[in-house]
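Inputs:
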Amino acid sequence: MNFKPMRKASIISIGNEILSGQTVDINTSYLSGKLFSVGIPVVSFYTIGDDVDLIVRTMNFAGDDADVVLMTGGLGPTDDDLTRQAFAKFLGVELELQNELVEEIRSFFVGRNLLMPEKTKIQAYMPAGAKSLLNKFGTARGIMAHKKGKLFVAMPGVPVEMKQMFEESVLAELERMASGQAIVVQKLKCFGTGESGISELLGPIMQRGRNPLINCTSEYGVITLSIIATAEDKDKAQRMVDKDELLLTELLGELIYGRGEQTLAEVVGEKLAQQGKTIAVAESCTGGCLAKLLTDIAGASRYFTYGWITYSDKAKISELDVEPDLIEKYGSVSEQVAKTMAEGARKKAGTDFAVGITGIAGPSGGSGQKPVGLVYISIDSDTGCQTRRIDISGDRDFIRLRAAQIVLNMLRLKL
Amino acid sequence: MNFKPMRKASIISIGNEILSGQTVDINTSYLSGKLFSVGIPVVSFYTIGDDVDLIVRTMNFAGDDADVVLMTGGLGPTDDDLTRQAFAKFLGVELELQNELVEEIRSFFVGRNLLMPEKTKIQAYMPAGAKSLLNKFGTARGIMAHKKGKLFVAMPGVPVEMKQMFEESVLAELERMASGQAIVVQKLKCFGTGESGISELLGPIMQRGRNPLINCTSEYGVITLSIIATAEDKDKAQRMVDKDELLLTELLGELIYGRGEQTLAEVVGEKLAQQGKTIAVAESCTGGCLAKLLTDIAGASRYFTYGWITYSDKAKISELDVEPDLIEKYGSVSEQVAKTMAEGARKKAGTDFAVGITGIAGPSGGSGQKPVGLVYISIDSDTGCQTRRIDISGDRDFIRLRAAQIVLNMLRLKL
């Protein structure tokens, strides 16, 4: 690359519970994505136990290659939380009690009508000279300090606390450091084909070493394509990304449902809100998964009003007016019942759209004719009722979530 | 500990594609579980890019703390696979061509009616004096060598190749190294207090360096306590775990809801099924989260029958017979509405229990009197209706899931 040496980052996760597999580390991929998006590539991840000497040595080791070292975990109040102590040792300073932090912690508990446990007082200690970072959701403040021109930051391991702190107190500092180097990433979200399908459609565009690099990952049927352009300034990288985005849009057409971190539920919700339409759901096998996805979105009350989880036949009959004869004749997992559930829900809720889902999520309850993974989905609207049979391979979780995503994709294409 | 010092392990994943998030590293958790089960705890994971110097330095750094260093990745035939070269440099030896390996690779391709690509010849080179490990599913042989009494192993990054190689050529060596040490782990799951609350109840039992070690982690209010006993044989370690489990059960009482990987929904479901009881849910702010948790469990249809997601006031009125006047007077987020939702749901579903939840999940919609995070939970049963006000700090996701977990815990204590 023909520009000044890039700033690089390293991430250290601290916690015995991660090493032993008790806790899954979701912080590292979050931070890695964020670092990348400001133009600072990550050159190493480290996961280590709660051990003062090992933390200090790893901070030194990570700092050999990286200009920024972000750490998570070990700032709690218990005896096995040792990041605070290690940070002070790494800087060669003492931990100092900060009285205003004692008050802050006390008021955190008072606000919740709780007594402040004596142990939490340790969280009011900071390495001398380091900056303490506000934690809006807990009592573990973060720590930020420079050593030999490099930036070291310790944040809590609890993801919700870490994310808030990172975004409010760390991100701006990183953006300052990354000036003069740029990585621009644009994600395109697709639904309707698998990774190999995408790979066939895109061909040589997906080659390694290409700039922009096109990255592909898959989760519950949602394919994320990342266009990653590296250049000496943001504008140039952005132009490279824009060009590729056009190209991909042409090649993939309506397989692309959104950009960035958009979920299918978000896109469907936006379309409903824009068009002033409302929706109701009647779920059997998905047991609330679809309603949850729709209401995960803030402001969902603009379009989502009613939901039924009619897990038993009795509930389908009493709540959605499904005819007992229909269940008798075709079984509760059938095209006919899915359709009647959707129609019944729309009639009762008085919405523009209503969904009926019935299927076999397993692991038991399947048969030769109706295997585990068989799901009927029906969408009723004033243009009539559309019903689809789908067959999903996977475990109970996968079948339920995949079925809910397929409904959302059907709704997207309908809207 | 009154026996010989424990053997410890470290794992290094090598590959630019892992750092950039293109490939998810599933090898580390597999190896970590295997190492643990033979009695060798893992003290660190490292993820680094394909860079000879960084690999050598990381091997040295990992070897400072560990007796066994397992590496995966970077043994392929392409230019960015550099683990072979790094391993030789680490040992201070040259790479030597092994003619029998050239033949092996050639026959791998011949057996598949393919021409051997010239590039794959690099895979027939081994660091002088190192042992090469058979790969049944590919051409990337593994490398095993000792340095300063410590064991270093490089395996391919492709999980199926790595697993086969580990089990056939590495596991036995590790068992030999671990003879005379055993680890037994038992997890206890708790709900009803935070980490600092647990820590106060357990006091010195949670001290670091104690054997068994008591480890504590928290997720959406669920506290997992792991009792980790280390001894010279499995039986002794098991007895130590059993003893501590009794002690913790005494100290924590009904804060403990389960063992192993049990979820609150599983425990509640089991109790309902055992007692032949049924449940219905009426959710507003949680929008299906509670129904989803209950129906995540296979066999939930034994006790879960009906659910309503009454997101709008209209739905609360039409589906659950909540009086419009009540909503007018107290607001839809109120003790009174939660109670009427639960009562209405139980009446309509004819179940033994019914839950009503109404609250403000945010991010908007809060006010001074009714802030974001305020949730009313009501459980109706034939012994009457119990209603609780709770205040949750966090984002929309956290508030919704935490509220659902609190309901499950209330149900557990009721059952």
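The mean pLDDT of chain B is 92. Flag for discussion at group meeting.
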